[in-house]
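step=encode ok
step=design start
structure_in=
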């Protein structure tokens, strides 16, 4: 593993080994709370976020922190994303919390560093397999297994629309947008939602999936994966406005695709 990634990888692995994995399939009822209807959080989420922030501070960073759980406790932090001029870290201690609660192995930890409104470094870590996906702006996307040699990721060329496999997420979409997405569902080969944004991005970056859509674009869910997918040659863009994803875009009709050709094919079906 490249030396520049090693300290952050060690922090992610230590957080997983000491906080996240000991609670996997081992949560008590009073260790699970509901932040809002249908959105749950566990003691592992909270403790892992605190541990990640402490670890980043110990590395000497003077950046700010925008964590999923700390923002849930102080929602006004999210309103300030546009106003942050200094570097800041985005953290999702457990992406796929519902999967984690249910004993489903589809969960990960995500962090990203944002400078001048753009993600410049991101990591998606899978505790159960010790797999790290890392990306740097302009320097590519990589996968590391067990801290070993990295593999450069290239999403590759997508097939024709009728042969595509992907995910359509309609949990937060209105009726009109849901209808448009359902029209796309009839035109592709396979649909499967992982219920975990980090997994969707990592599959796309490896060329194992062709597309996914999201409407609610919270920074901790999408900043890390967007950089990973972009550096692998993929696209994250709003099919209605043509806007590329930025950390301050909290909602939209965003389509993730392995390449621009695939994105344009998807847009031709879904765009308003």
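sequence_out=
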């Amino acid at each position: 593993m490249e030396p520049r990634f090693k300290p952050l990888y060690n922090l992610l692995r230590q957080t997983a080994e000491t906080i996240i994995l000991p609670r996997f399939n081992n949560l008590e009822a009073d260790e699970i709370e509901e932040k809002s209807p249908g959105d749950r959080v566990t003691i592992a989420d909270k403790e892992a976020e605190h541990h990640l922030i402490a670890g980043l501070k110990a590395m000497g960073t003077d950046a700010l922190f925008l964590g999923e759980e700390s923002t849930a406790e102080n929602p006004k932090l999210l309103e300030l994303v546009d106003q942050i001029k200094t570097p800041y870290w985005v953290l999702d201690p457990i992406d796929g919390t519902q999967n984690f609660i249910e004993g489903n192995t589809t969960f990960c930890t995500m962090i990203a560093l944002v400078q001048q409104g753009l993600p410049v470094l991101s990591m998606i870590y899978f505790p159960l397999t010790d797999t790290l996906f890392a990306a740097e702006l302009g320097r590519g996307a990589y996968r590391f297994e067990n801290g070993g040699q990295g593999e450069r990721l290239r999403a590759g060329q997508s097939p024709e629309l009728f042969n595509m496999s992907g995910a359509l997420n309609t949990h937060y979409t209105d009726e009109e947008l849901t209808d448009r997405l359902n029209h796309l569902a009839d035109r592709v080969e396979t649909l499967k939602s992982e219920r975990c944004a980090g997994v969707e991005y990592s599959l796309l970056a490896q060329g194992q999936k062709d597309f996914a859509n999201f409407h609610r674009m919270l920074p901790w869910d999408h900043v890390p994966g967007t950089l990973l997918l972009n550096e692998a040659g993929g696209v994250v863009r709003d099919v209605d406005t043509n806007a590329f994803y930025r950390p301050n875009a909290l909602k939209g009709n965003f389509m993730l695709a392995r390449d621009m050709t695939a994105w344009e094919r998807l847009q031709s079906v879904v765009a308003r």
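step=design ok
step=annotate ok -> The mean pLDDT is 94.
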